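Appendix B, record 7
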Amino acid sequence: MKTTKKLGIWMDHSIAHLMEFTSKHFEIETIESKFTNAVKNQSLAKSEKTMYNKEKGLLQDYYKKLGEAIKNYKRVILFGPTDAKTELFDLLSEDERFLKIEIKNTDKMTANQQHAFVRDYFSKA
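Structure tokens (predicted):
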């Protein structure tokens, strides 16, 4: 993604939709977590501890990819229905480059609703 000023990310624990806010149009990228139900079931078949460790490691990779995508933006809004946005925020807030991140709770949204949310959010500020 190109370096722009504003980024909206609708996310949960499995997928993140990154939307660059520009005056012309949205550019979208999707980042998916590698912790799928199949991986969960495979790990859980071995033991609950194995599943927990696998989930923790794969979520860390997912959050690291998102951090890399976010680092060149001046303002970022994380929104979505789960605690994933808060977990990402807590992880990234230890680095002062990520102090420009805000969080909003929302429900599940269609792509059009996500775009409208980002447009409205950044248009007000």
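Remarks on this record: The radius of gyration is 15 Å. Strands lie at 6-11, 15-21, 27-32, 75-80, 101-105.
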